[in-house]
Write a structure and sequence with these properties.
about 475 residues; four-stranded mixed beta sheet; six-stranded mixed beta sheet; homotetramer; about 15% strand; alpha+beta
Chain lengths: ~475, ~475, ~475, ~475
């Protein structure tokens, strides 16, 4: 089956009968809802670009099993080149959407499950690897978008899953039947669920034997009975309802988060990838998180490219592109952004094969990558706001600008360089606002902090991966300390 | 005349017939408009607190001329104690409103004009000081709120006022009559104009003789003919129209910015404080900016207190208040916030008298203060977002929460610690969102960058005030270099 | 008795028969030893400047008891003006010596003991306050330099004093006699001990009842039997033995640290200020540390002034004083340095009276001050090294420069701007080396980190002083959370 | 010819009759001089490790021309794998020496010249490529160490080479003969010259036609007539003369810098690689600098590993390895160090072929790499000093420690954890001192700043390589700006 076009994809999502709620009401047509559509467009870009010959090498891969060209988002990485291309594909998509394009979680879940189910089967004699591969071929064959859902609501962070006052605060198996299991719980902060055909569910932390019911992984279609979504509010969300292209900054692309509720959902046996093997929950989490921390070294860099470009355009329009402090700030933004890219590339180039044969990123460097992503975008945003100037947050609405009476005054007084239209100036400032404070800031700032795990999660992993005993030996040798 | 109560103040503003535009339409009743009202409430707090005995010492002062108790916002600082109390008053108001309370610009313009008009008169034989003092007594007597308007639109930043393609991009005198002058132009980013009785206009940069028409300062009532305002869009502005107290985070207080247009406004002679004496434009700008850079060491610290508190509450509700990394982040936020306060206090305590007899802050330290304000709030916000967790940007709307069908699911799954209501948890996250990304982020972040001049403006002043030749001498002496 | 001149002071120290060891040998004449003399000269500056009319106001104070003019280093602060003048005096001395002038510890111990002994007496009926005042008058009368010794060796940091394998790792009372006590132990990192007439010993941490023998404070002359010092090695210490003024960078001033051993030293009853009242150990430590953390907001700022000046001179000599990135780095150095000064001034201006009547700094702000001192000097040094260029660490020795054969080549090739002598260029680079890597770096960098307690000690105090509950209340009020 | 052993190498250097001056005197036997020997040992490690089978893959490569195994330091990179292995080899050597091992400059000069001479010949019909290859084979065949000398003294930085008051402040051709040229000038900050068999000289900046005499590159043996060196002073240099292994921290390895003077040196025609083709000077400089900026992403990371290990050992010895703030600081040090490594790996993995066929690093990422190296080691050092504690700069000398009378007191009072010897504790603190303030700090700090060009040089390159126009296009497309 050929790769879907963007339009095919849109229609395929429209055919799914997902239950989506927003502002207390069910959304009849999520595909055409103005708040939700930009996020769908971002995923669509992963299909559109895969159709273009110039991006074929980055956007697609050849399945070693079928020999077919498949979208790279459904691919299992077979070597470090694949890992590097993943990062470059993500940077490209970040540049084209200035938003989260959401399809990475499925790819990262794929690669984590491929490696982990293989090892579970080796150890426990289960058949999760076969289950997973069957599902994988189905996704590749049909060019589907898959959500990878990890984050449970978690309730009281000081308690483990089974200790919570409400046992459902981590998703769990509530019934076991001969042909499958019934699960209950929720997954929070799901960026791409709304635009996915299937959802992969994984546990969110390492577990002990007493948490066996929580050690569960599986995949089901997004319109499975019992699943529904409540859309999260984003900064400036309803501005998209106003019909102003200018005021939203980025009118075409976006990302949206949802709380996905699993209200007693049945999962057939052949879609189960983990079921009680608690000792493997941690491995699955670490690997998914590792791949996803690599991802941020690509996607956020692409968004950063747009923000750097926007700041440079704003400086041009202000008439100050050659001021030394402006140039220096653009250099600093670039420096920080490329440092993130270095981390994304490095953890990929240093990848190594798993027992299952696919390639895992260097875990230490992937965590270092994400840790930097929790810092640098904030400084890049600060510098962008600095260059943009205060007008970024005080400019009047497009309605004012288009008003016959007010418009001429705004045209007159908010003009920067005389040869640039006030409209263009306002547009670029709105884009910077969008990425600094608006809907896209949710993705570029807060998600950079918390997506793929908060900063402290990376620090724990850095400590675990840093091989401090070896470093102590090196130091003792140099210092002539013999113990 | 006694100090106005908050209610008196609201009514006095309602009586003014200001022209205010928003979303392409004139606002009939700005006082009761849901987007604008929170900003009025913030100013009101400067009246309400002045009525309370426990704050009398901070909120009021005794006029040395009249012997009357006046609101400190209308006071001329007579000693360093006044300067320090100003900062403490601002921190208090930041704590009570978590927003910009707007009345500082008038106070800062008062003190800059008091000192500068005196020196102009000394040099030029003008009578601006008398003009200003008459205006000052009127304001003190009637306990008015005064906007201090400095920032011109500035057009092409590489050109001086008279070089702009459109000569009105800096406000200027377009006609001179026996009884006064006519001015044309605009002032951008005016936070308090909407809630002020009077507006003081000042030039925005140092000027050369050829910019004489631009070297103009004066005061007029906000409802003077020819003045109108266009309200700027803030992140999440229209959320205030939805009627949800929860979703806005801070439902009672806020700040709003406007473009104030002077469409050929007449200014009577006795309200003129500068008129063509270009050599004093720079002094006026530097002093106003200096006072205002001091101000940020008070108000933003108060807002920071609220944000630190909100992050600590969020950590409590997540069940992790004793995690070492959480405690360390709260310490870091506090450390940064108190460093800002140190700068605000220090530039005040090191103040010195002007020729006119009022007290000027230490200019070097005031610029250092503001320079830190362009950095630390961004890091404080980042840490707050870190502690808050991703739910801050993905939580559903209050409508979802109140919905009979969805509500119970949200109640169940978004609960943190079992003994804290989900509602309270969502409220505190919305407050953090408000300060990080929402309407208040405009004030706490972007205004911290650009208010009272962008970072580079402070750096220029730091260079000018740093007495580098003296430092070179010290170094040469130690190094035994004789030249 | 009049204040001592610098020369008087030198002679008075020479008369003391202290036991000083260095490189495994007793130093016969510490006063004239080339490694030790610069540190004596730094203290001498506290006497020399006190003789000059232009510094009288900063360097001296009037004793309220005797009405005599005393050196401010022996003064008890009676108001915030005193606290502010202390900081200014310290900045002045840092500027004049580019080194640690050592006399602050005694002043800080004085003020901590004055307040604390008063409160102990109030509570316990002891007579420590009288003891201390008698000692204080003796010091003021004779214009003595007093070391304030707090830091015990501490052994295993995870154990309290009485739990250590060797009970002497914290200084303690080993015998009690009718007329006094015998103490054993050591005080580490004592910068000024060598140049002091008297030494005040204090405990180094808060204590519990089982540590009663360790809760001891007293003063004895530096040449008391049983006391000896071992001088610590500093980076580049022996360069001072080479006789090259140029190569040492700062040939006249310095600071030196010693391990002071108390090998069963007798302390007469009237010199005891604490003896077993464990509940007051913590108060004494906190107050001394608080005053001393304030101090760093003065002295290190003065040293910073010299380093900024040196970097500016180096830039001049390289011919690049107007390069925008050089100017920007000098601004950044100044900004950071003045931020430290703001903290020093602010914690002073916000001081408040103790029960004993002297003035205590604001404890929160003093800890914030020191915390910044653990960071900014490192960045200032980095920027200085950046401006200086690599020659700072690769320039040949003065012997090479003076050599008839090599000299001309060095003269030729290491010249910067043609109108500046190579000698002057080398001198200024050596000064920067001295402060970045050499003997003075010990004081400007490592001591900035660890002096008056390491960074974590300040963080603990910031947490304790930050009144987080109040901040939480503010946030809950704004968020309409009622509990 | 087989690869040299370390011992062979030492003897080969001993046979060279280099002229070396230090402290105003010629050094008779540089190989055995205690100040110089550690730096020779560092280079020796590049020979010793190449003999070990476990490091063969990193330390050696196969020459594609001769098919012989050659030391990787003499290799021309043929693919990205070579570039990555270079970085790993450098990290390994940094770990083994905790110092600069100096042989990188030759390798980087090799690769820059290989690519550039090829392109000059293509354009100008010269035969520099053949000249260079002949030299290269000679070096590979004999396993020589080659210095790569770029940095001229530069005099007044505001003037170009031919504008200097003294025309020799940039190295230049002073005479041209049929069989060769005569050059005069000097190269500053040469770390490895002393331990090299040959020296490659290159210009230090891009040039214009009027600087033709300065556009010269060539190679000559280090003992060529007219060449001599003056050794630069390092912090703590003479401590190596004292015979104390403990006090120097790292007694075996080091690095030393020299001013290399070319006092009318004859260069035969076949050793000339550039001679007046000014338009290629910039290309050569950029490529050499690019390779060398990559290098820092390896070597400094290895040194960082030792410093992190040393800090961890110090924490163990203090009894606080599990304190949360200590663990967090070790994590931060690791995070920063691995970020540097990411940059080293990334610019290598993203390398691309030159016209000559060898591989060039990604120039943007290599400059980003070095820019981070100008920052992070300073913070790593600061954190190491924090963990180490003040004793690092106040511990007595080994002579004190070994003294029969003083030793027991030092043994007693400077012990940390009871089960660790005081000697080991002092050793590890001396190593940290060595890297923070001592001889190795010159390499780990100042050289990290200025080696391969100062920070501003990288910023200029980042600006040039950042493709800002492309980023502006991306932003305009998202913002719907059509121009």
């Amino acid at each position: 089956m050929p790769l879907m076009t963007g339009q095919d994809y849109i229609e395929s999502i429209r055919r799914l009968k997902m239950r989506v709620y927003m502002f207390g009401e069910e959304v009849d047509d999520p595909v055409d809802n103005p708040i939700l559509r930009p996020s769908l467009n971002s995923v669509r870009m992963t299909y559109d670009l895969a159709q273009l010959p110039e991006y074929e090498d980055l956007m697609t891969a050849t399945s070693p099993e079928s020999g077919q060209r498949i979208n790279r988002f459904t691919h299992i990485h077979r070597n470090t080149e694949d890992l590097v291309k993943k990062v470059k594909m993500q940077r490209l998509l970040g540049q084209q959407t200035a938003a989260c394009f959401q399809r990475c979680v499925g790819m990262d879940a794929f690669n984590a499950l491929y490696a982990t189910t293989y090892e579970i089967d080796e150890k426990c004699g289960t058949s999760y690897f076969a289950n997973f591969k069957r599902f994988m071929f189905f996704v590749q064959e049909n060019d589907l978008t898959v959500d990878g859902a990890m984050t449970d609501p978690k309730g009281d962070r000081s308690l483990s899953p089974h200790e919570q006052a409400d046992p459902d605060l981590y998703l769990r198996v509530v019934a076991r039947h001969p042909d499958g299991i019934v699960v209950r719980g929720a997954k929070a902060h799901q960026t791409g669920a709304l635009n996915s055909h299937e959802i992969i569910v994984m546990p969110t932390i390492a577990m002990k034997p007493e948490d066996a019911d929580y050690a569960v992984a599986f995949a089901v279609p997004m319109d499975t009975e019992g699943i529904f979504m409540v859309i999260g509010r984003q900064s400036c969300d309803t501005r998209k309802l106003e019909g102003s292209q200018m005021d939203v900054g980025n009118s075409e692309f976006g990302g949206v988060e949802a709380l996905v509720v699993f209200d007693d959902v049945f999962v057939p046996n052949d879609r189960i990838f983990l079921n009680g093997e608690t000792e493997f929950a941690g491995m699955l989490v670490e690997r998914f998180a590792g791949y996803h921390r690599q991802s941020y070294g690509g996607c956020k860099v692409g968004v950063g490219d747009v923000l750097i470009g926007a700041a440079a355009v704003a400086a041009d329009y202000n008439g100050v592109p050659t001021a030394s402090h402006i140039k220096d700030k653009l250099i600093e933004m670039t420096h920080l952004n490329e440092t993130l890219y270095c981390c994304g590339i490095a953890c990929s180039a240093e990848g190594s094969p798993t027992a299952a044969g696919n390639y895992l990123i260097d875990m230490l460097l992937a965590n270092v990558c994400k840790q930097n992503v929790t810092r640098f975008p904030y400084e890049i945003v600060r510098l962008a706001e600095d260059i943009a100037g205060g007008l970024m947050v005080t400019a009047p609405s497009e309605k004012d600008f288009r008003d016959p009476k007010l418009g001429p005054f705004i045209e007159k007084y908010l003009r920067g360089r005389a040869d640039v239209s006030t409209e263009d100036r306002l547009k670029i400032l709105r884009l910077i606002e969008n990425l600094s404070l608006g809907t896209a800031a949710v993705g570029y700032r807060t998600e950079s902090l918390h997506g793929a795990g908060p900063p402290q999660a990376q620090r724990v992993m850095i400590a675990r991966q840093s091989n401090l005993p070896r470093k102590k030996e090196l130091a003792k040798k140099i210092a002539h300390i013999e113990e």
